[in-house]
Amino acid sequence: MPFEWLIGWRYTRAGRAGRRNAFISFISLVSMLGIALGVAALIIVLSVMNGFQKEVSDRMLKAIAHVQLMDENGDALPDWAALAKQAESLEPTIRAAAPYTETQSLLAHGDGMRGAVVRGVQPAEEAGINDLAADLQHNGVLDKLTPGSWNIVLGSELARSLGVTVGDQVTVIAPGAQVTPAGALPRLKSFNVVGLFSVGHYEYDSALALAALDDTARLYRTGGPTGVQLRLADVHDARAAAGRLAAGLGEHVRVQDWTRTNAAWYDAVQIEKTMMFIILTLIVAVAAFNLVSTLVMTVTDKQADIAILRTLGASPRSIMLIFMVQGASSGIAGTLGGVAFGLLVAYNIPSIVPAIEHLLHTTFLPASVYLIDRMPSDPHLVEVLHISFWSLLFAFVATVYPSWRASRVRPAEALRYE
Fold first, then answer.
1. Of 244, 251, 156, 247, which Cα lies nearest the Cα of 204?
2. % helix / strand / coil in the chain, to the nearest 5?
3. Going along 44-92, which residue ranges are E strands?
4. Which of 100, 116, 142, 295 could form a disulfide with 402 if both were Cys (CB 3.0 to 4.6 A apart)?
5. What sign does the dihedral 238-243-247-249 (CA atoms) show?
6. Residues 6+ apart with CB under 8 A from 28
7. How high does pLDDT run on average in the chain?
């Protein structure tokens, strides 16, 4: 091992032990702990945000398709099966395809009236698209949506707001009007409520209804399905797959993935994660640059040692490397400690948070208020590596100036009063 590394490591160990200067040792320890806490806070916060994102997106994806194909003008697709086959030839990750219609409507029952999206589906194909349809098929509810039955399945919150339950009837009022000799009259139809569903996402539980595709096509006069839903092997590849499909299918087909249809939520989460990363990284940077004061005091204390090393033949570069090793050792130790502590907490948050709630006799996420009643956590290796990289970079940069000042010490002046 080069002597610069040996001396730098010796200075690090001596400073921590407080053999020569307890104050310098204390400042070095504070800097190291600051780096560790900053790194741990970054890992924990981002892991919790990842957990919330995963929980909400999983519940969202229970009710929607990964990718949707539609006519550019919103017209009915003359042959949805041919379009689905063409998409499968372009994108091998497609696992299922199903036709559908989606129309904003009003649902009425008694004095209550609510806006909702009525989705027309074919039960046989729809069950392979999302977990909601699969669960409804398993319970035998989806099979009740047969052509001409005029049956409908409502979200639990939508049914509650209308005051209906299974066996009741709701009136679906379609947009537009039909012209009769008596004037323009709204197009409406009574549907039998044959089932309820709950995916755990308020937006869909309160504003989504499922009906037979042939019935919705007749009511809304679409002439058939207006789009094709696709399920992919990897939901996280939806945006890239949609881009490839858009390029292959041409301009007459509009392609949307789930991140586009829920762009407001998805983009907000990404912006929040980016801002939290920047803010907490600044905390790590402040802690890392505390190493500057530690090394400056160490250089002042070690001037006689520096002068002796210079007289023994050590170059300014060697002196600079010695103190960079000392400062970097604190940065590495703080980063590794922060990563270890952060991952320990992140992986055990589902156990730690209930313990804290029990101790404080409180509930951080009441089930009656929030969508999620537990604190989720999902650490990502890539984010941990990014955090470690920036922490180490800040620590290394912080050592440059004090180390350079050490290399500029003149032996004769340093030893004049020794």
1. 156
2. 60, 20, 25
3. 67-71
4. 295
5. positive
6. 15, 16, 291, 294, 330
7. 85
Provide the H-helix boundaries in 250-368: 258-261, 263-301, 303-311, 316-347, 349-360
- Bridge partners for 197 per DSSP: 155
Cα–Cα dist 345/380, whole Å: 14
Apex 31 CA angle, 26 and 37, nearest 5: 120
Residue linked to tokens 């989606």: 102
Taking each helix axis as running N to C, give the angle between helix 22-61 and helix 349-360, from 0 to 180 degrees, rounded to the nearest 10: 100
Query: Quick check: 323 and 294 in contact, CB under 8 A?
Result: no
Q: State the Cα–Cα distance between residues 380 and 362, nearest whole angstrom.
A: 29
Pairing of strands 183-197, 169-180: antiparallel
Tokens 């090793």, located at residue: 325
The number of C-alpha atoms within 13 Å of 31 and in the hemisphere containing its C-beta is 31
Residue 16, judged by CB atoms within 10 A of its CB (0-12, 13-18, 19+), counts as middle
254 touches 243 (CB < 8 A): no
Beta strands in 49-89, from DSSP E residues, in sequence order: 67-71
- Alpha carbons 24 and 298: distance in angstroms, whole number: 7
At 151, the amino acid letter reads N
Q: Count of CB atoms within 10 A of residue 23's CB?
A: 10
Task: Pull the structure tokens for residue 85.
Answer: 């086959």
- Residue 193 to residue 67: CA distance in whole angstroms: 28
| Amino acid letter for position 357 | E
Query: Collapsing DSSP states into helix, strand and coil, what is residue 221?
Result: coil
- What's the rounded Cα separation, in Å, for the pair 97 and 232? 9
Q: With 50 as the cut, is the pLDDT of residue 17 above it?
A: no
Query: Tens of pLDDT along 237-284?
Result: 899 999 999 999 888 899 999 988 887 777 888 888 888 888 888 888
- Quick one: residue 224, left, alpha or beta (phi over 0 = left, psi -120 to 50 = alpha)? left
- By DSSP bridging, strand 67-71 and strand 227-232 are antiparallel
Share of the chain above pLDDT 70, in %: 89
Read off the tokens for 417: 């009063």
